[in-house]
Each structure stands twice: as structure tokens, then as C-alpha cells.
């Protein structure tokens, strides 16, 4: 039994009711005609695969059938928060690493150690968000 | 999109006056799987409320609420996963998603209701779809009804988690359906036509140990 908080149903639901849909917050280029092949290919096909904090799009397929966002730790599988479409994540890799971006090294593995300490994130998973 | 396509819909009476044979999605199941009769030993009783009018309303909550209040005399449920009922309990509106509600009325009322709602909604941005032919409603009663549900769905049906007036779309026997609890003792299952036979046979199988009976 693994429960996910649906921000639209406003309650925890069985994992079986959900489907993951890949990386979240991918913005469609405003003017596709003006894109280079590389830019358009990047938009269509290329996705980040971080070790640690990942923002994902999920759908409550057997429920309200709405898409929403999930901040998930790809190392521990822990879901740190769920939030509606159009909202921004409150838990990010930068935030968990104390705002320190370590060059071009992904900070996710550093952030991972502070995952359990994020009270706000835990609260949102338990459905205690306002 | 031009105004005419956005605001005008062809509305068909799917129950014409002439005699056209119509069957519930479970007609075939009754024929092939039978209907165990209700006995003294039955601790779960199943009853189909066949051929009811089912309608999907989509749009903004405020404008739809005003329209259904005017036409039906009661409003949309205020919270997610809840149900609002008319005083006599014969008509209901259920929250399905933030912009989607299921209205169930006694069979035959849906055509008039749809026209009245369209009139009340005017130029508002909304959609009404008559889905009566696509699904059916089962009622489940008896002191073991909750146990039967516990065997079938991962959703928590304990009274603390599932009070009267709640309704959810959820997993049921690896298929899915709408599960709702309009009164203290009665559970309702809204089945899609394509899942109806499977779910019916599942219910008979799961209910066998409670001597499940099917009322005609
Ligand atoms: Zn949901």
C-alpha cells in the first residue's frame, strides 16, 4: 500500500490509481516555426534524468483524471510534494542543497541527505497542506 | 470557433415515444449468470436501478451551481468526492473532478432536464453529455455489504474514511467504477457498460459467502 496525495481530490489515494507521465514543467516553444531542429528535438524528445530531486507530471487516471505535478526523489522513491498544474514546486534540488549549485554537478545527491528534514514537504505528502 | 458552434448543441431525446427495445447493460449478464434470489440467509442484497438518466456536466462550479439550483432545486456538492441529493433522494449530483459532475435522475427525466439546463446556462462555457446508455447503477445493501467492498477495492470504506454523502471514482476488482454512499445503509456502484458484466460476476462471486441475492 503506497499512497499518493492528489491535489485535486484533496486526499491520499492508492498508487494503483495513478500513472507517471514523465518530466514536468516542459514549456512548449512559443514559436515552433522559429526553432532550430535541435531546439525542437530537445523539446520533443530529450528529458533530464537526475539522481535525486525530479519534478514529474502524473495523472490521477482512475480518479479525477487530472494531471498534476510530483516532486520525487529518484534515489529513495520518496514523494516530497504534489502540486497542481500551474503551480511551482516548493521543494527543489537547489532548495535542499541550501541554494548551493555545485558547478555543473547535479546537487540532487547532496539534497537527498536533507530530504527527511523538510517538514513542509512531509506535511504536503500527508495531505496537511492548506 | 464561431459563436454558433460554441453555444448551440443538437439535443436528442434518446427515449422516443415509439416503442424501441432497450436493455440495461446487465440484461445479458442476468441471462447468462442468473440472479440468485434473496433469502433469509442473504446478508448482502444487490439491486439494479436500471435505465436511470445519467448526465455529465462540465464547466465552472459557480455557473453550473446556479443553473442546477434553479432547475433541480439543489446545488452542486461543495467539496471534492462528495454527493448532493434531492430531499427525496431520487436525484443526485456527484463531484467527479474540479470541473466535472455526474447527475443521476429517474429514467425519462434526463431529456427535459438537459433542455432546462441548457436554457438556464445560456451562453456560459459548459458541456452536458447524456451518458445514460453507457452506464448503470447498482445498489448494495446488507450488513456484509462493506465486507464485500473491502474484498473488491483498495479504497478505505470504513465509516470514518467513507461517511454518508461521499462518492469516489476508484479501482474495483482491477476495473474501475464510481462508488458512493448516499445513505447510512446503502452503497451505490456506477458501472460502465463495458465493465458491467465483469463487475456483476465479480460481485456474485465475492458475495457468495454472504448468500448474496439479487432483487428483481
Ligand atoms: Zn484526483
Summarize this, please?
The complex is a heterodimer of chains A (130) and B (216). Chain A is of the alpha+beta class and 130 residues long.
Keywords:
heterodimer; A: 130 residues; alpha+beta; Folate-binding fold; 4-stranded antiparallel sheet; two-stranded antiparallel sheet; 6 strands; disordered C terminus; B: 216 residues; Gyrase A, domain 2; 5-stranded antiparallel sheet; 6 helices; 11 strands; binds zinc ion
Report on the structure:
Chain A: InterPro entries: SoxD (IPR006279), SoxD_sf (IPR038561). The complex is a heterodimer of chains A (about 130) and B (about 220). Chain A has four helices and six strands; from the N terminus they run βββαβββααα. Chain A is an alpha+beta fold and about 130 residues long. Chain A has a single domain (about 5-125), classed as Folate-binding fold, CATH 3.30.2270.10. In chain A, the strands form two sheets. In chain A, strands 3-4-5-6 form a four-stranded antiparallel sheet. The longest helix of chain A has 9 residues, at about 35-45. Chain A is globular, with a radius of gyration of 16 Å. Chain B is α+β, with helices and mostly antiparallel strands and about 220 residues long. Chain B has a single domain (about 25-215), classed as Gyrase A, domain 2, CATH 3.30.1360. Helix content of chain B is about 25%, strand content about 30%. Chain B contains six helices and eleven strands. In chain B, strand 3 and strand 4 form a beta hairpin. In chain B, helix 3 (about 60-70) crosses helix 4 (about 110-120) and helix 5 crosses helix 6 (about 195-205). The radius of gyration of chain B is 18 Å and the shape is globular. In chain B, about 35% of the residues are buried. Mean pLDDT of chain B is about 95; it is low at about 1-5. The interface of A and B includes residues 13 and 14 of A. The structure holds zinc ion. The site of zinc ion has 7 residues of chain A, from loops.
